[in-house]
Amino acid sequence: MGMRFRGFATAVIASAAVGAVFSWAAIRTSGQVPAGQAPAGRGAGQGAGRGAGQAAGRGAAAGRIPRNAWDNHPNLNGVWQALNTANWDLQDHGAAPGQFYQLGALGAVPPGQTVVEGGDIPYLPAAAEQKRKNYVNRLTDDPEVKCYLPGIPRATYVPYPFQIVQSPKNILMAYEYASANRVVNMEKPTEAPVDSWMGWSNGKWEGDTLVVDVKSLNGHAWLDRVGDYTTDNAHIVERFTMTDADHINYEATIEDNKVFSRPWKISMPLYKRVEKNAQLLEFKCVEFAEEMLYGHLRKGAVK
Predict the structure, then answer these.
(1) Residue 35: Cβ-neighbour burial (10 angstroms; 0-12, 13-18, 19+)
(2) Are 115 and 86 in contact (CB under 8 A)?
(3) Taking the CB of residue 236, how many other CB atoms lie within 10 A of it?
(4) Which of 26, 35, 45, 113 has its CA 20 to 30 A from that of 181?
(5) Both 276 and 243 in a single domain?
(6) 57 and 119 both lie in a single domain
(7) Does 59 share its domain with 136?
(8) Which has the closest alpha carbon to 175: 27, 31, 9?
(9) pTM flag (> 0.90)
(10) Which of 52, 69, 86 is the last residue of a domain?
(11) 143 — alpha (psi -120 to 50), left (phi > 0) or beta?
(12) Which of 60, 59, 58, 50 is nearest to 27 (CA)?
């Protein structure tokens, strides 16, 4: 599967102030119609009311978002986690037994709804056949089984939390699974020196949305446990939009013309871990996979 990149990244964190900015929409009402203007019909009045109400709702939502002291953009700092079954299968799927009957319900696959916009992944015919082969061989070929790094976007929705640490120049994203990490460059875009499991991330703000452009992935990571995959030609564009202090709407647009007939998108909410002393713990899973990977190399091992 190639070399994996490991190690901890150290971030110097600038102090962030949490602000609450409320935007109010005022509706001007009058008992008289200005001269020369026809009276508004019932539909027009309702439309204006709805528009003002929606604007007020957006303003109130913006006011609930904590912001950075240095640039007034949303403060994404914290520990976050996706609560869905996308890591098992990005698309709609029912409950299913696991591959080891000895585990009973412990190894079963939970049911889940699709996170794919439109429901279907637009595979090219040859790529669909490769996905089928991946599924058949998933017990040995899924990089997650071997504790390889999850790649992007899978790192976001594996069933482990991750932490965002912001500074003016970079954003660190550290993942509990396999101690994976990446740094999002927020200055002038740069290019990767080499392809890697987690790719190379350049970020920018579009309004209140953090947009992360990910390239230079090595093509070894899968997207889920049923064999959905990309190649080293993949280009991922992520969008992190804070909807309030404890929720982020996450979207990832996936483009890879070696595998898919068109770009496609996944989306899901991310939830902030708000329990007391929320933090990342260590899940260094290499030792759990060593026997599977290298047991046959032991002296006297049964072949």
Answers:
(1) exposed
(2) yes
(3) 21
(4) 113
(5) yes
(6) no
(7) no
(8) 9
(9) no
(10) 69
(11) alpha
(12) 50
Backbone angles phi, psi at 157, to 5 degrees: -120, 10
Query: Among all chains, which residue has been given the structure tokens 């929705």?
Result: 157
The whole domain housing 47 covers 40-69
* Residue 99 and residue 51 in contact, taking contact as beta carbons nearer than 8 Å: no
Contact 6, 179 (CB under 8 A): yes
Q: State which amino acid sits at residue 77.
A: N
194 and 290 co-located in one domain = yes
The count of structural domains within the chain is 2
Q: Are 47 and 138 in a shared domain?
A: no
12 in a domain, yes or no? no
Structure tokens at 211: 């947009």
Contact between residue 165 and residue 76 where contact means Cβ atoms under 8 Å apart: no
Quote the CA–CA distance of 59 and 47 in Å, as a whole number: 18
256 & 167 share domain:
yes
CA dihedral defined by 231, 232, 235, 236, rounded to 10 degrees?
A: 70
Q: Which two tokens stand for residue 84?
A: 């869905």
Those residues with Cβ within 8 angstroms of residue 35's Cβ, 6 or more apart along the chain or in another chain: none
**40's tokens:** 């508004």
Amino acid code (one letter) for 134: N
DSSP designation for 300:
T
Q: Is residue 186 part of a domain?
A: yes
In a shared domain, residues 136 and 57: no
| pLDDT string in tens for the chain (303-residue length) | 444 334 433 333 333 333 332 232 222 223 333 333 343 443 444 444 555 555 555 555 666 899 999 999 999 999 999 999 999 999 999 999 998 889 999 999 999 999 999 999 999 999 999 999 999 999 999 999 999 999 999 999 999 999 999 999 999 999 999 999 999 999 999 999 999 999 999 999 999 999 999 999 999 999 999 999 999 999 999 999 999 999 999 999 999 999 999 999 999 999 999 999 999 999 999 999 999 889 888 877 655
Task: Verify that 85 and 209 share a domain, yes or no.
Answer: yes
Q: Say if residues 172 and 9 touch (Cβ distance below 8 Å).
A: yes
Residue 153 placed within a domain: yes
